[in-house]
Structures are given as C-alpha cells and as structure tokens.
Amino acid sequence: MNRKGKKPVSGKAKSGPETKKGAMFRVKEETTLMEFLMAQMPGKSRNKIKLLLSRKQVIVDGTPISQFNHLLLPNQQIDISKGKQETYKAVKQARELSIVYEDAELIVIEKPAGLLSIGTDKEKRATAYSLLSDYVKQQDPENKLFVVHRLDRETSGLMMFAKNDEIKFHLQELWANTVIERNYIAVVEGYVKDDEGVITSYLVEGKTFVMHSSQNPKAGKKAITNFTTLQRKRGYSLLKVNLDTGRKNQIRVHMQDIGHSIVGDRKYGATGSPIKRLGLHAQQLSFSHPLSGKKLFFESKIPEEFMRIFK
C-alpha cells in the first residue's frame, strides 16, 4: 500500500496476536524471521511458529516465506494469515491501496480490484476499511473510521471514508446535494450502438443476492444510469458512466439490460473475461466538503488493462 507523496498505510503492530484472526507487524531492525516472530509472538512455541512457516501463513511484503532464517530488513511488513491457504493476492492488492486525499474529517482512497470495501462473515482483515482503520489508529488509538459508500469487491477506483459519525451522517443523508460528480469507466461486451444514453429501471434484490431490473415502479428502487460511448474496438466498447442514483450493482445490472454486460461479470451475463477482472473502475469523484463547502475533484487513471483492448 502506498500513499501518494506521503507515508504508507500499514497495520499496527500488535503483541501476542491471535493468528486465527490474522495480524500485521512492522520490522524495526535487521533480524531473522524466526527471531522476529519469537519476539512478537511470545505465546507461541518455536514448533508452532515453524508450523505457520510451513503452511505459508507468514507473508513478508506480500510474499509467503517458509524459511525460518530469512533475513528481515527495517520497515518490512509481516502479515500472519488467518488460514492455511489464505489468498495472498488480497494482501498484495491491499498494498496497492493509496490515500489520494486526507484531512481532519475524511479520507479518499483508490481501491484496487479484488479488495473488499468492508468485512464479510468470511473475511474481516483484508478490507479497505480494516486497513484504513489500522492506519488512523496508528495516529491516535482513539481515532475511528466510518464507511460512507462502497465499491463491489471486483470494482477498482475512488472511495470515500469519514473520520467521525457526524461527517458520515452528513455525507450519506445529503449525498445527492454533496456529491457533484461520480463517474465510472466500464469495458462492456459488444459494440454499443448509441453514443450516449440513459437507462432507467427499478432494482430489487433476489433471494440469491442477485439484483433484478424491472419497469414496474412498485417492484423496487428507482435507478438511473447515464452513459457515453468513448471507443469501440475488437468487439468491445469503452463507456463513461454517470450515476443519478447509487443502487447495489446498478451499473452491472443496467449494462446487462441493454445487452452489453461488463466484461468479466458472469453474475450479470458476461460471456468472457479478456482482462481477467471485472471491467469497472470508479474514475472520478467530485463533492462539496461537508464543513468548508469547498468543491473537491479527484480523478484516477484508467487501468492499463482496460486500454489495451482499444489500442
């Protein structure tokens, strides 16, 4: 993880962690991996630590390490995964998390694809919320973090978090008046005929957590999606998408509605995955600061894998 021009976000070192929940440590001086783990985990015997190593549960700067005499250097980060086969990809993706703006009230980050916004029953630690929460608590253990909005796990791009409950409430309750612009870039299957368009429907969540679209106003919540077609090539289209509403999976459902599912989105009708991920990125976020009223604008670079299709 890195902070653009500023110090990296990292987990707070803990003493004697419960490894089944996972833990993060920061190396302060040159030492071997075994010596470091013995010092940081006094409640674990040498044999139990060797077991963690053999199971590849010890991750050094994103890479699983099993050698007990592996040399550690200052500022390296050690992650203890919660399970034998925890996804190391999530740890590496977490390192790509960048803070693009921070003040006393809020934080704007760029979330990589594959990283959860918040925890689930199965995953608590490898989330944008957890990583940022650790970061703000490093500054002051009393600091807190609040989720303002979410991105799907496989969607990358700009997200905003509040540092206190009042700011969270203000942003969520006055979202329509606070957010000036919230644009996404999408790679979809097929050539979208229209250069621009508006998709309107009513979305409702089914029993299997899949969103369904209807033209019946009584069937669900109204969702409005605007799009502009930027490029067409090799059987795919590149779209700029703007939301009037922020419903769950809204863009994904609406792209399926017009017969152009987002690439990699098998949940909503995609037939292929040419970029090996969901082709959706939250590229632009503009809003009025909840206290100062100042207009803030943030723009993220379109992922390189999106653009390769259209070269």
Summarize, please:
The chain is of the alpha+beta class and 311 residues long. The protein contains 8 helices and 18 strands. The model is unreliable at 5-21 (pLDDT under 50).
What does this structure look like?
It is a single chain. With 311 residues, the chain is α+β, with helices and mostly antiparallel strands. It has helices at 33-40, 46-54, 88-94, 128-139, 165-173, 175-178, 250-257, 304-308; strands at residues 2-3, 23-26, 31-32, 58-60, 63-64, 71-72, 77-80, 98-102, 106-111, 146-147, 156-162, 179-189, 196-205, 211-214, 221-233, 236-243, 280-288, 295-299. The protein has 2 domains: 2-165, Structural Genomics Hypothetical 15.5 Kd Protein In mrcA-pckA Intergenic Region, Chain A (Roll), CATH 3.10.290.10; 179-289 and 299-308, Pseudouridine synthase (2-Layer Sandwich), CATH 3.30.2350. The chain has 8 helices and 18 strands. The longest helix has 12 residues, at 128-139. Strands 1, 8, 9, 10, 11, 12, 13, 14, 15, 16, 17 and 18 form a 12-stranded mixed β-sheet that branches.
